[in-house]
Amino acid sequence: SSARYNASLLILVSVLLIMGSWYSRIFALKAQDRAIRAEENFRHFILTGKPLDKGLRLGQIIALRFASDEEFPELAKKALAEKMPAKDIKQAIRNWRADHHRV
């Protein structure tokens, strides 16, 4: 009975640690995704005087962050019009802008 209690407690603690680790990772990624959306919306506004179209999905915006300032506005329009997936957006970028700060 004592051994069963100890085993149950160990399993419970293990599950809670795994869930806590998973939650902290997801929380960091969601916060970073929000920051990327805001940064790219601001960059688009600086370059064009207009915010990004609300029709762009988060995955598209995240992919567009790698585009240089010269190609960013046109590629954003193309991504929206053609409903380009993130992979295709990344392949369409000619002048790559690295992101070394991703969590």
Broad structural category:
mainly alpha
Cα end-to-end separation: 45 Å
The percent range for helix content is 55-70%
How many β-strand stretches?
Answer: 0
The fraction of residues in strands falls at under 5%
Largest sheet: none
Low-confidence stretches: none
List its traits:
about 100 residues; mainly alpha
Question: How would you briefly describe this protein structure?
Answer:
69% of the residues lie in helices and 0% in strands. It contains four helices and no strands.
Explain how this protein is built.
It is built from four helices and no strands. It is elongated and about 70 Å long. It is mainly alpha-helical and 103 residues long. 69% of the residues lie in helices and 0% in strands. It has helices at residues 2-48, 58-64, 72-81, 86-92. Helix 1 crosses helix 2 and helix 2 (58-64) runs parallel beside helix 4 (86-92).
List the helices and strands and how they pair.
Layout: H1 2-48, H2 58-64, H3 72-81, H4 86-92
Helix pairs in contact: 1-2, 2-4
